[in-house]
């Protein structure tokens, strides 16, 4: 039985806690959050205990094997370090850190403390993305020449509005389309050159949008689009190969749509689409990490992959700031 | 009014000729082409005389010509037509170099003839409506635009740089750049591009992602790749997403379609929307008739070509290229 402590009861902390609560070989021993109301609520929902601080949890809990860090990005280093100091394995939300140096430090530190570090690049556990990669590897569409991805929705609201502070969140380039950077790297290898444009520094508050062009070492060109200026979340991907095309658009794949008939005449009801799976991608991801701990396996996404993803995102941000392409070494 | 067609190298000659046939008071009187087989076939289809030498066509009493020759010949054909005093509707891209385009513009002005660049997408009802919505402020201030104009590799002279001036980048940059300029009344200041040859067996640029910075502070990207394969339901696409402070506009010019599943061809899209080409020709004919300035000028054609050429330069230098 693995005893897991989740730090942070925000969006991802909630998803992770619920996943652990549903696992047979995991005991969710606690939720840490400085917001008592939110922390208690999630603890009750997942039948565990709430702690106001990491220190309190570690002091009171008899056994903790794994610490899952679901905190704002700028707090990752501090808490991963504490967990490693305590000799606990760490599962950390993406992005691992705000820049490559910080990410490097975290990875090296965990290695030195001899604890395992897993980073939640969950896109690798989305079946539609996994299947696309498999098809590419099987040669279903030949060599891919151009890849396009989209990820976006409304500007995120969270504790302390930390997403709005560029220094803390690194904007959507670091926080969100890092998913696509990692996925593309997983499929097509390392990136050589990055060029990007974004709203950063253009004076639009609580709005973000970026268009990133990646040139891969294998010659492929990718166009990565990220938005916190759209209504409703969607993710899209198109891989154009010499022999075919793979296309996916989450806004078009709706196996289930429930609509509440409006009580008011002339008003339309709200449609809630769902794409249910027996095990959702977050559950699959965390189950995989637990299995890697159990059987001492190399994970599908390594801590080194997470560093590389941060490096690409950071290069895009530098390109946005300087207006120049950035070559990765 | 009498019209002639100089060269049917570009397949649009056919849809333009069909458009002419539908217009009252306008008559297509001849097709000239240096390729006799190709030209005669077209002339026969249109039911008009064939001229093996375009000078002979220009010597007739036609009022205007449609130039649908290979890109690299637009200059020669336009200059000769202007010299003969004929108004010109020239296929895009206007020319393969900025100098050639400028000479065409200057000479047509000197000769007092209309030079219109064929950007039919401006006449697509959804495009017209999108521009209206932008002008009404529906999306607030535009912050960014993401565009695509992808297609299948057209083959033939399109993949011979001597005749085409380049591949996908020169072929598919100009339409959407024109729309962006038109929507915003702003020029492209800087261009960055990644360009390569990834889909064709012939060594020609067939994919590219352009990133542009406009003078009004808007940034945009455009995918001009010939990345649509044979199995794709249609030959290509024209899409734009406009990101504004108050909302977004998604435009997909080929979305008025039927899904047709045939055993022979698999899934194909059959378009039921309005024909853009006939509106373009009608607009040109109206300008000629009423002796007014064309709605799409030679300068519009040149500005779009400049962006495509800057994209090639940027890809070569791996640096952004500043246009103005």
From TrEMBL, chain A:
Q: What positions does the domain Gfo/Idh/MocA-like oxidoreductase N-terminal occupy?
A: 3-121
Which Pfam families does this entry report, sorted A to Z?
Answer: GFO_IDH_MocA, GFO_IDH_MocA_C3
Domain of life assignment? Bacteria
Q: Which InterPro entries match?
A: Gfo/Idh/MocA-like_OxRdtase_N, Gfo/Idh/MocA_Oxidoreductases, GFO_IDH_MocA-like_dom, NAD(P)-bd_dom_sf
Using the record's annotation, list all stretches that form the GFO/IDH/MocA-like oxidoreductase domain: 130-246
| PANTHER family membership | BILIVERDIN REDUCTASE A
Protein name, UniProt field: Gfo/Idh/MocA family oxidoreductase
Naturally occurring in which organism (per UniProt) = Brevibacillus porteri
UniProtKB/TrEMBL annotation, chain B:
**Residues in domain GFO/IDH/MocA-like oxidoreductase?**
128-249
**Regions annotated as coiled coil:** none
Tell me which residues make up the Gfo/Idh/MocA-like oxidoreductase N-terminal domain. Answer: 4-118
Pfam families with a match to the protein in the record: GFO_IDH_MocA, GFO_IDH_MocA_C3
Q: Where are the transmembrane segments?
A: none
Matching InterPro entries: Gfo/Idh/MocA-like_OxRdtase_N, Gfo/Idh/MocA_Oxidoreductases, GFO_IDH_MocA-like_dom, NAD(P)-bd_dom_sf
The organism's superkingdom is given as Bacteria
What name does this protein carry?
A: Gfo/Idh/MocA family oxidoreductase
Q: What organism does the record attribute this protein to?
A: Brevibacillus porteri
């Amino acid at each position: 039985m693995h005893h897991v402590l989740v730090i942070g009861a925000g969006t991802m902390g909630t998803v992770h806690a619920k996943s652990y609560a549903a696992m047979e070989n995991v005991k969710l021993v606690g939720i840490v959050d400085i917001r008592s109301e939110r922390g208690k609520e999630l603890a009750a929902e997942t039948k565990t205990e709430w702690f106001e601080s990491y220190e309190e949890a570690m002091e009171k809990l008899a056994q903790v094997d794994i610490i899952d860090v679901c905190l704002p990005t700028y707090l990752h280093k501090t808490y991963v370090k504490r967990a490693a100091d305590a000799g606990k394995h760490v599962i950390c939300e993406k992005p691992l850190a705000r820049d490559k140096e910080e990410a490097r430090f975290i990875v090296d530190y965990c290695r030195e403390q001899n604890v395992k570090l897993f980073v939640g690049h969950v896109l690798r556990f989305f079946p539609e993305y996994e299947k696309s990669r498999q098809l590419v590897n099987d040669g279903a569409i030949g060599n891919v020449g151009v890849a396009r991805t989209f990820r976006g929705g409304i500007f995120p609201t969270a504790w302390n509005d930390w997403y709005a502070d560029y220094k803390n969140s690194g904007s959507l380039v670091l926080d969100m389309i890092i998913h696509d950077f990692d996925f593309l790297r997983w499929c097509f290898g390392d990136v050589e050159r990055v060029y990007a444009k974004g709203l950063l520094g253009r004076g639009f508050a609580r709005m973000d949008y970026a268009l990133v062009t990646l040139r891969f070492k294998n010659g492929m060109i990718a166009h990565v689009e990220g938005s916190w200026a759209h209504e409703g979340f969607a993710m899209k991907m198109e891989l154009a190969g010499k022999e075919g095309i793979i296309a996916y658009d989450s806004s078009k794949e709706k196996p289930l749509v429930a609509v509440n008939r409006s009580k008011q005449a002339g008003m339309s009801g709200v449609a809630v689409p769902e794409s249910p799976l027996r095990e959702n991608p977050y559950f699959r991801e965390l189950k995989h990490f637990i299995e890697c701990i159990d059987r001492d396996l190399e994970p599908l996404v390594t801590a080194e992959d997470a560093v590389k993803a941060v490096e690409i995102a950071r290069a895009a941000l530098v390109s946005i700031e300087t207006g120049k392409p950035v070559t990765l070494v | 009014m009498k019209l002639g067609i100089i060269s049917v190298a570009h397949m649009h000659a056919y849809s333009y000729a069909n458009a002419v046939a539908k217009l009252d008071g306008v008559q297509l009187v001849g097709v000239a082409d240096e390729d006799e087989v190709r030209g005669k076939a077209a002339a026969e289809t249109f039911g008009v005389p064939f001229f093996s030498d375009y000078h002979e066509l220009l010597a007739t009493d036609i009022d205007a010509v449609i130039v649908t020759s290979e890109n690299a010949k637009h200059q020669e054909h336009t200059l000769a037509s202007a010299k003969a005093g004929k108004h010109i509707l020239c296929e895009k891209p206007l020319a393969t170099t900025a100098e050639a385009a400028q000479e065409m513009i200057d000479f047509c002005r000197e000769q007092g003839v209309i030079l219109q660049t064929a950007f039919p997408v401006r006449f697509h009802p959804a495009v017209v409506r999108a521009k209206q919505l932008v002008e009404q402020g529906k999306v607030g201030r535009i912050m960014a635009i993401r565009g695509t104009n992808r297609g299948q590799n057209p083959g033939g002279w399109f993949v011979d740089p001597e005749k085409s001036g380049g591949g996908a980048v020169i072929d598919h940059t100009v339409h959407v750049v024109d729309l962006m300029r038109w929507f915003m009344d702003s020029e492209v200041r800087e261009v960055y591009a990644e360009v390569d040859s990834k889909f064709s067996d012939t060594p020609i640029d067939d994919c590219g992602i352009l990133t542009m910075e406009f003078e009004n502070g808007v940034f945009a990207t455009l995918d001009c790749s010939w990345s649509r394969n044979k199995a794709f339901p249609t030959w290509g696409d024209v899409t734009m997403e406009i990101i504004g402070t108050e909302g977004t506009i998604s435009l997909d010019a080929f979305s008025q379609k039927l899904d047709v599943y045939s055993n022979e061809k698999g899934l194909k899209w059959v378009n039921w929307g309005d024909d853009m080409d006939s509106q373009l020709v009608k607009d040109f004919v109206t300008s000629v008739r009423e002796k007014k300035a064309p709605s799409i000028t030679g300068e519009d054609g040149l500005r779009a070509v400049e962006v495509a050429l800057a994209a090639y330069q940027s890809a070569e230098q791996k640096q952004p290229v500043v246009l103005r």
